[in-house]
Description:
The protein contains ten helices and 13 strands. By secondary structure, the protein is of the alpha/beta class. The longest helix has 24 residues, at 164-187. 36% of the residues are buried.
Amino acid sequence: MTKAKVAILISGRGSNMMALLYAAKLPDCPYEVVLVASNDPDAPGLALAAAEGVPTFGHSHKGLDRTSFDAIIDAQLKESGADYVALAGYMRILSTEFVQKWEGRMLNIHPSLLPKYKGLDTHARAIAAGDSHGGCSVHLVTAELDDGPVLGQLRIAILPEETAENLANRVVFAEHQLYARVLADFVSRERNPEWLLGKVRELALALPEASEKTSHGSPGFFVEGGKFFAYFSYDHHHDGIIGLLVKSSGVEEQAMLIERDPDLYYRPAYLGPSGWIGIDLGSGSMDWEHIGEWLRKSWRLSAPKRLTKMLDIADQF
């Protein structure tokens, strides 16, 4: 199994960082930690990560504007080969440019049940509000503070006469459990058949007059008044492949594609002789813009002329 490469950003002791790092040591963990970086060169977490053999980087943000400092961190992330970034007690507001570069690939953990209590003093605010539970949330990072889509949460009961300090101590244990699990699920989602089908469905049904129905035991997508233009196949012929089947221009293009990139393309059973091409979706790093282009091309080969003419006119504008 090829593991996703994760870089972790910290500012202090790095307790959540260590939870992620220790989880990465388990043989079935789908990610590895390739860098721990900090805006404080003396952050205790850096020494802990180095002791575990993980590359580290520390650089003070003092005297630098936000964009300049984030560019330094970004350069280190790229050098490490990181696919994803996990913020673990990283006490810096990130620049818009940095967030955009890592959009959809940067996670954070926050000590509240978002969208409640963004920002600081979350436990005291939950207690003051009379909430029955506090907790923690893992979310994708967006330009707005603590506002990205929530990927997972754990609820922690607030006890009678609770103090913010005691609640914080218990929530930390929950954070260590939640973050590693959510990160593992997130980086492996592109090998999950249900997630992959959802992505294909989203792209396919966005095409004009496209519909879905099961055909030969597989989800299929067709044009109203036309033909099927795509099938989603999961281990359909006991081959272990998670694939998308779309129409190519014919067997010559099919052969050329397979010869050029045999790890991505394959000749599907039954539909192969008709010039359809199989695209292996299970690599874990799919180019969804490329998949969208294939679906659009296959749709054009299947749609009635009244629809393709309308689309041709729309494309001119």
